[in-house]
Amino acid sequence: MEHLDVVIVGAGLSGIGAAYRLQTELPGKSFAVLEGRDTLGGTWDLFRYPGVRSDSDMFTLGYPFKPWRAAKAIADGASILDYLTETAEQFGIDRRIRYGVKVIAADWDGAAARWTLTLSRGDETETLTCGFLYCCAGYYDYERPHAPEFPGVEDFAGTMVHPQFWPADLDYTDARVVVIGSGATAVTLVPAMAETAGRVTMLQRTPSWIAPVPGRDKYADRIRALLPAGPAHRLIRIKNILFNAGFYQYCRRRPESARRLLTGLATRILKDERLVAEHFTPRYGVWDQRLCAIPDADFFKALKRDRAEVVTDHIDRFVPEGIRLASGRTLPADVVVSATGLRLLAFGGITLSVDGEPVRLPEHYVWQGAMLTGVPNFAVCIGYTNSSWTLRADLTSRLVCRVLAYADRRGYRAVVPQPDGPLREHPLLELSSGYIQRSIGDFPRQGDRRPWRVRQNYLLDAATTLRTRMGRTLKPVRAQERAGV
């Protein structure tokens, strides 16, 4: 049976970054990246719906070691996939990826101090062992989206699609399209589809906060014109980190002012206070849920051009010609897009066990946003909810390298985080978004203090994460010991 020092699960944005850090900082370690699909890219290869793009600027969503050179700061999915492919090829990471290999189970053997992985490769099952398991598969279920049951949907005479499984041959030219939802996917789809569709209607139950942002960063363009690519990327990255952190703190500390700012921007573009009050003024506070960014205000511009509209109402039922609303109005539709959100799935759906005992995730706490109590030599990569995913992901990958180096120096075959006292339980992700609230109970918890608190603050994390004194809470696991909570 093959044995590796480290196995990375997932060849998306996080997995490729993790592989770079591992081979750069610990070049003597043997490792492989296991990817269940037939290509790299993760989200940026899977999602093919019209207009798919980043919701963070690419100077912070991109890697610190790989400058973003394209013109647009908010990039389309194809450009991001090209960037990931180029990164993997440039640093030889593509040769480390094993495609079509899905990790379905992992059991920690305390006596041998290693993981035994059960892998699915097509119709066959095989096993592999490793000393450390690092899951970079994110927390979304890429096989099952959130799909509410709509009354009467079987009566609908048109085409029903979900953005997660976009049909390559779908022709919506001059069609009447209804997009159900109000999140980032919906506000991306509407302007993209409005270019060729006859009419696009976004149907939302309640409004979401939407922020227009520049598609290109003029200050970044000036910096890149003056400096070489590497220094320019670092400077722009710092600028954007500081701005985004400052804006988030402003929204949380001065919520009423933030509400006025966003409604004022929307009113300035749409020229219609009543429209903004009805459809773009949520009841919840700014950043209680993730903020939807619209580059160059494309969503608002589609409404102004009368190529699209927003309807705030509830669905009564589907009818052959479209959707009947609770108000009695019927929205005619040839195509209905159910942009109703994703479903969370902890750590790629891998079934974890320790010495044959199933790991019940809600009973465990997260250390430094990365490792779990009671689960030796295991880490997960979870990005920020209020900033670019990669900022936290890269910190976590560097932390994993530090943990491995620490264990090697001390001669520990296995380490596990242990709290030094009782922890007060908090959910791992604290946004009020429906997709989080539906599933967060299946995830491990965070505590009430460092290093058990998952802070949504890159500036604090960058200053402290890699300076953590490992010995305080990261303990060796002896062969005869069980790694209890």
Label this structure with key terms.
single chain; 485 residues; alpha/beta; FAD/NAD(P)-binding domain; 9-stranded mixed beta sheet; 5-stranded parallel beta sheet; 14 helices; 25 strands; globular; FAD/NAD-bd_sf
SSE map:
Layout (H helix, E strand, L loop, with lengths): L2 E7 L3 H13 L5 E5 L7 H4 L11 H4 L15 H14 L6 E3 L2 E8 L4 E8 L2 E12 L23 E3 L14 E5 L3 H11 L4 E6 L5 E4 L4 H9 L2 H25 L1 H16 L2 H7 L12 E4 L2 H7 L3 E5 L2 E5 L2 E4 L4 E3 L2 E4 L12 E4 L2 E2 L7 E2 L3 E2 L5 E3 L8 H22 L4 E3 L8 E2 L6 H4 L7 E2 L11 H7 L5 H4 E3 L9
Parallel strand pairs: 1-2, 1-6, 2-3, 4-17, 6-21, 7-16, 8-9, 8-16, 9-12, 10-11
Antiparallel strand pairs: 4-5, 5-6, 13-14, 14-15, 17-18, 19-20, 22-25, 23-24
Helix pairs in contact: 1-11, 5-10, 6-7, 7-8, 8-9
Family: Belongs to the FAD-binding monooxygenase family.
Cofactor: FAD
InterPro entries: FAD-binding_MO, FAD/NAD-bd_sf, Flavin_mOase-like
